[in-house]
Amino acid sequence: MLLENLKTPSLILNVNRMKRNAEQMAARAESLNVRLRPHVKTHKCVEIAKIQMAGNAGGIMVSTLAEAEHFLKNGFTDITYGVPIETGKFAEAIRLAKASERFSVLTDDAATAESLNEAARGENINLDVFVKIDCGYHRCGVEPHAPETIAIPRLITDSSNLNFAGILTHAGHSYHARSPEELLAIARSERDSMSALAQQLKDKGLGVPTVSIGSTPTMSAIDNLDGITEFRCGNYIFYDAFQATLGSCSFDDCALTVLTAVIHRDFSRGKIVVDAGAIALSKDHGAVELDENCGYGRVLDLAGNDLNLRVNRLSQEHGEIEVGDEAILQRLKVGSRLRILANHSCLTAAQHSHYHVLDGEQIVDCWEIRRGW
Ligand SMILES: Cc1ncc(COP(=O)(O)O)c(C=O)c1O
């Protein structure tokens, strides 16, 4: 089927760009001598994860237990659940751990580790647990110099039914770097704080099987990963307008767009309205620190050429685009097709049920997205 014949809005995956992104990141992991554990929350799709895994055996990270279940059913047996565990999810995590070769969870909370040990003991199972470290993002995790960075690993190591899997961090603050120098400094500090902590734990007699870091911006910037054993990144598989503005990739690497139709044209206000609103694009802000007018995505023509327009305003199913150029406005009649390169591909993908797989000008396949919790 041709792209222009698809119903709108639809999610379009440029399969050749996606494969290239997968190959390049796998090669990067190899050259930096670390295992790549892709975060599959970006795509939530078995076909894409299989492409990412070709040539590496580091397992995957998931963001929901529903994803864990789905990927396990489809043959992925080494899974890390990437959101801190809480008591309401113990039973499901234990069930998943029993069915997997390796299922790891993470925590930054001593009381949770203690109660997880009790739950695991009750089920006669041993669980792999990472301690989550805050390397500067300040979302979750123990600060690297806090006493808990030693106390919680020790508590886990000494527990009857928990295995200390190692330390893990995510430098989400890298998304707000204002320059390549600042991004490199964040990437180095993510690496250095984790390798120093791993050494400190080893000096205290604690084994640290895995030192896990990763975000797409820091992985694009880092020069060497001495002291790190695993890196996890997700967004790189599609990239997006945010990453291209930040410099993690070029605009030609971006593999995911939303096909949309013009549903209204207003010459007096110099704008068009398309049928891709917040529920097709997500309402995520872009790299506003670097491009304050980034809006909610860049507007491309059907062939993928940038029209130098932005989605300026969004409501649930309407996207408003200001069009200053009269000739472009004349061309964009109601019914015209456009493609939107959204700011944050992970959130855009999560709005949809399927990828329409684009190879050249043809839609060649349709792949399921496993949403929900
Ligand atoms: C815990 C964790 N690890 C890894 C990642 C991957 O980051 P990115 O999508 O920037 O590659 C994320 C993303 O939010 C995350 O939350």
Please explain how this structure is put together:
The chain is of the alpha/beta class. It folds into two domains: 3-10 and 249-368, Beta Barrel (Lyase, Ornithine Decarboxylase, Chain A, domain 1); 33-237, TIM Barrel (Alpha-Beta Barrel). It is 32% helix and 24% strand. It has twelve helices and 17 strands. The protein has helices at 15-32, 46-53, 65-73, 90-99, 110-122, 148-158, 180-203, 216-221, 241-246, 278-281, 326-331, 345-349, and strands at 10-14, 35-36, 60-62, 78-81, 102-107, 127-132, 162-168, 210-213, 230-231, 256-266, 271-274, 297-300, 306-314, 319-322, 337-342, 354-359, 362-368. The protein has an eight-stranded parallel beta sheet. α3 packs parallel to α4 (90-99) and α5 (110-122) packs parallel to α6 (148-158). The protein starts with 9 loop residues before the first strand and ends in a 5-residue tail after the last strand. Bound molecules: pyridoxal-5'-phosphate. Pyridoxal-5'-phosphate binds at residues 39, 42, 61, 82, 170, 172, 214-216, 232-236.
Descriptors:
17 strands, binds pyridoxal-5'-phosphate, 373 residues, TIM Barrel, 32% helix
SSE diagram, text form:
Blueprint lengths: L9 E5 H18 L2 E2 L9 H8 L6 E3 L2 H9 L4 E4 L8 H10 L2 E6 L2 H13 L4 E6 L15 H11 L3 E7 L11 H24 L6 E4 L2 H6 L8 E2 L9 H6 L9 E11 L4 E4 L3 H4 L15 E4 L5 E9 L4 E4 L3 H6 L5 E6 L2 H5 L4 E6 L2 E7 L5
Parallel strand pairs: 1-16, 2-9, 3-4, 4-5, 5-6, 6-7, 7-8, 8-9
Antiparallel strand pairs: 1-10, 10-11, 10-15, 11-14, 12-13, 12-15, 13-14, 16-17
Helix pairs in contact: 1-2, 3-4, 5-6
Bound molecules: pyridoxal-5'-phosphate (PLP).
